[in-house]
Structures are given as structure tokens and as C-alpha cells.
Amino acid sequence: MVREAAHTLKKSLLWDLLTTVDHKKIAILYLIAGTLFFGKAGLMAILIRIQLMIPENTFVTGQTYNELLSMHGTIMLFLAATPLLFAFMNYFIPLQIGARDVAFPFLNALGFWFFFFGGILLSLSWFFGGAPDAGWTAYVPLSSRDYAGIGLDFYVLGLQISGFGTLISGINFIVTMITMRAPGMTLLRMPLFCWTSFITSMLIVFGFTPLAAGLALLMLDRMFDGQFFLAAAGGNAVIWPHIFWIFGHPEVYILVLPAFGMISEIIPVFSKKRLFGYTAMVFATIVIGFLGFMVWVHHMFTLNLGPITNSIFAILTMLIGVPTGIKIFNWLFTIWGGKLRFTTAMLCASSFVPTFVLGGVTGIMLAMSPVTHLYHDTYFVVAHFHYIILGGIVLGLLGATYYWYPKMFGHCLNETLGKWMFWIFYIGFHLTFFIQHILGLIGMPRRVNVYLADQGWDGMNLISSIGAFMQGVAIILLLINVIYSAKKRPNHPVDDPWDGRALEWATHTPVPEYNFAQVPQVRSLDPLFYEKIHGDGKMKPTEPLGDIHMPNGSFLPFMIALGSFIAGFGLIMKHMDAWINPYIVVVLGLLVMFGSMAVRSWKEDHGYHITKENVEAMEREALADERNR
Amino acid sequence: MADHLSEPFEKSAMTNEEKVKTEREMRIQFIAFAFMIALTFLAFIAVGAEVAPPGFVISFIIFLAFIQLFLQLYYFMHLKDKDHGWANTFMVSGLVLSIPTIVALILIIGVVKY
Fold first, then answer.
1. CATH of A6-554+605-628, one of 1.10.3720.10, 1.10.150.170, 3.30.9.10, 1.20.210.10
2. What are the transmembrane regions (chain B) (predicted)?
């Protein structure tokens, strides 16, 4: 087949994936890795719910429970939600802005491998004396060297390394969207998914840096006898929660904003209307991004920081309700009067709206600092943030999966199975978490592994566990759907099954390496839809067909990240009875890492060209496919 | 096409006008550098002379630091130049986000509860 350009064809699948710098293949890598971590953390959630299903259960010990709970939170936020969102961002930002790749393809691969090795390092903790057990927040006295075991070392270094990857990708996305937009794609014509990803990337740059600093301090404390957080040695433990939440609150928006973007892509397509209040949506996103940095203390209302502090942060927190409300109403007005098609993607997107409102309302309740003393550390908080994360991010991700799957893999997912999945998931989700609001209000604390019978909690916990199992079944149904749809796929791939509006639907499926043979001219918001109505349904080209310059694949990103992994593991070996001096391992890792960087710097690599003839042949083949459909 | 990418050019491709511009830029860099050294000297003298009260010295040095920051960003790192709009946006939004955060953090962490 000519449709794969000559260079990738020579490689085996594995070697191609290890060395690729193509944003679409990196997206698939993110998708696979993210799904694996998602499955792992989901399984932990099921184990947690089995433990809490009946009072005084002895399914797992308290220590194991703490480890499960900490790893569930840490993996879900850093290693499942983030890469799954990055998968879609990687795949669709260049397509939606009419670019051939991201601005720095090499850095893109480097970001993925840093994330991947960071995740592996964190997961290795299970085999070396126990996972981190201080919660995903790792509050200090509990996570200091006096109280926490080696698991926390894995937490600190694993997150540090995967954080590098996230930072690198964030910077890459920002530069891509600033510099690589197609002619006519002004900032206020960018699809909302690009806009929310843009703000998310800004939040990553400003938010992950404090996290990196905080983790570095904790590492110094734990491994090099530092005393930043040790009260006995003159340190201050309160600084850790501050630093953590200065990062941690923006992190919530880092995750939910791209999901907002996905919803804003799906709803207009299935309502056959342009997005209501596009400009207001963009500015609401910016305002949310800004306010997200000004509210971190609302996680620490019970820390006795003083009434004025608490009131200021309470008001700032409630203020976020305003731009979020703007978004909710805009989605509703987009649906209103539209020509609705309730596919699985649309079911996820439209049910996202009321679910997210529920999470938002409990968020405003939690923002009231006087009352929060009642809710604090109860299941009410657990219910609240799961409404945001599952009802917001996961529903967005599921919707995006059904919506974008045909572009990524050439065939739609089965709709019947999809609707079964959606309803089982949706009902299971509300069973699990709605009842936890009540459990919290009648006093069940979070992060406990056992509870006594006959406090009125037994039935509700059982219902909650049943809901969790239903969600597990739904995700298994999704996997079955993936396999089933791949088996039943039509002979020819589909280009534009949903009557799409944004630029990604103007490409051929499978998307050729160079995305667009000729960079398209964008004439409006929803450029493809504009051409369907006012033009001939095809994007107008801005350049003649010609040779296309592409970057070479490289194994170096893998090696750089591998070096950091070895160095990180070496540092952790300080706390093991190792047969080798840990510093030898550290130096070895750093050598691999900086050596690979040096090779990258001094070895010249100007990429290669796909010739005009090759491009023409590939385009002809794609068009022939379209005619055969 | 990609054959001679790593070979140096024989002749500069800049026009005369551009060369004059670069020279002026060079002069500005030197002046800014001298000015910054002078500011550093002032800071040292302010402490070393031991004439002013510490409260004044501290605020004076912080004031100098802000001038220094401005010079550094706008003259040394070219933020003043054309086509630096995005770099400016990000620097300014970083400052807008981090200054309230740091001020709030210092206020909150203190012994006094507000």
C-alpha cells in the first residue's frame, strides 16, 4: 500500500511505536497506556468497594486498603485521566487547527515516554515493599521519612518523572496552537476543544511547576535528611498542603477543561447547530483557568488559617460557579431547538450536563467555609469529587471515544452495545455516588477500611458497591465493543460518519502521515460545515501539491526517559538493602539520560521528504476508497 | 533539497539596514548590562554602608530588584521587541498568577491568623 509512506513501512510495528514521533501514533500510545492504568485503578476501586460492601469486612487489611486507596487516586489522576485526555489532544489538536504535526514532534514522544516510565516506576512500588499509603495528597507528617515507608519514595520520584512528561507536552501543545494554525484559522475560529486544551496546557505549565518543586522538597526531606516539613527540626508541615493544592486545584481544571471541550464538540454535531455563545464559552474557559489558581485554600478550610482567609477563598470559590454556569447554559441552548440525534456519544455528552451540575452544586456547598467543618473528610466530599471526575471527565472521555473512534481506527463502535454500556455505566455511577452524599451527611468518614454495623450505613454501602460493580461491567462492555466492532468493521474505512463540523473530519481515514496533502483554507468557525453549506463540501487548499517535509522517527526519547527511570530507581534504592551502591545506579541512569540528550544535540537530523508523486498516489488511493464506499 | 542544510553560508543574508539595527541592539544590550551592574553595586553599597535603617534598605533593594527584573526581561531577553506578544502574555499571566499566590501564602503561613 502506498498510503503508508515509505519510511514507516520498513519498520516492524513494535519498532515503529517505540521510535515514532507522529502525533497520531503517540496518541494511540497514550490511549493504550492510559487505558491500562485506568483499568488497573478501576480494579482497585472495585477492591475498595468489596471491602466496604459489608460492615467489619476482612477482605483486605488496613495497610493494603490504604495502599489501594492512595494508588487509586494517584493513578486515576496522573496516569489515567491525564494520558487519556492527552491521547485525544495529541490526535485532534493538529487535525482541528489544520497542521501537519505538533510543533515539536520529538518532544511529543519524549513527553509520552517520561509519563510512561514515571507510571511504571510508581507501579513498581507493589513489588518493593508496598505502594504509597498516605493518600494521593501525601500530606506531610504522614508521608515524611518517620512515618511512611518506601512506597512514598516511589510516589515522589514516579510523579516527578511523569510530571516532566506532562509539562513537556503542555508546552508543546501551547506552541502548536500558537504557531501551527492553518491560514484563516484565527484564534476565535479555533474549535472549543482546542481552546480548552490551550488553557489546560497553560494551567499545566503554571500548575505542574509548583508540584515539581513540592515533590523535590519532599524528596530532599525523605532521602537527603532535609527538614522543610519537619516541625521538630524547625520546618513547617502546613507548607506541603499549600504547595500541593496550589498545584492540585488547577489539576482538577487541567482534567475537566478538555472534557468540557469534548462536550462542546459533540453537542453541536449531534444537535446540528453551531455552538451557542462560542465567544462566551472561550472567555468562560479563560476565567475558569485564572480563578482555578486563586482557590487552593478551600481544600484546607479546617486547617485553622483564620476567618478572613477562609471567607476570601470561599467567595473566590463560589465565583467559579459563574463561568461554569455560563458554559452549562450555553450547552443547554445549543441543544435547545436542535435536530437531535441520540447516539452514544450524544448520550454521554448530554447526560454530562446534569451530572456535572450536581457535582458543581455540592462544590458550592463545600465552598461555604463554616459548613465545611461538617462535611470535611466525610463521604460527602468523596461523592462530590467523583461527580466531577466521573460525571465530568469520564463521561466526556467516553463520549469522545465513541465520537472520535471512527477517525482514529476507521470504523464506528457498535451503537447497541454502546447504549447498553452507557445506561449501565450511568445508572451504576449514580447508585455508587449519589448515595455517598447521604452517607457523608450522616457521618461516615472517608478513608476508613472498616465500619461498625447498625449505624444506618450498611444498606447504603451495599448499594454503593453494587453501583461500582455495574460501572466495572460497563467498562468491560466497552472493551467487548472494541473487539466486536473491529471484527464487524466494513471493508472500507469511514471518513465522516457523524456529518462533522470541525477540520478533523475533512481528512481521509486512516489519516495519512502528513494529515493534509494541502493545508486547508479556513473560512469560518466550524470550517468543514461552512464548506458543506457554502462550498462543495471540500476544504479549499492554500498551496499547490508538493513535497512534504516530515520529521524522522527516533529511539532517543525512549532512551532519555529510560535513563531518568533508572536514575529515579537508583535514588529509591537508598532505602533498600541493595547489593549495589545506589549511587552507581543513579550515575548510570543520568549517563544514559544525558548521553542520549547529547546524541540528540550533536547528531544532525533534518528529517525527510514525502515526494509529490508519493503524496499524489496516496491521495488517489484514499479517493478511490471513498468512491468504493 | 535537504543536502546542504548544515553548511555555513558564505555571505550574510542581512541587508545593510538590518545590520545597523543589530548594531544598535548590541549597544542597547551593553548599556542595559552596565546599568544592571550599577544597580547591583547600589544594592551592595546600601547594605555595606550601614547608614540607612534595615527596613528602608530591604524595601530599597526590592525596588531595585523590580527594575532589574524589568531590564532583564524587556531588554536582555527581548520582550520589548516586535513579535514577542505571546511571550509577553505568558510572562505577564505568570506574574499575575504567581504574585497573589506568593503574597497570600506568606500572609497565611505566618503566626498571625487572618
1. 1.20.210.10
2. 28-49, 55-77, 89-112
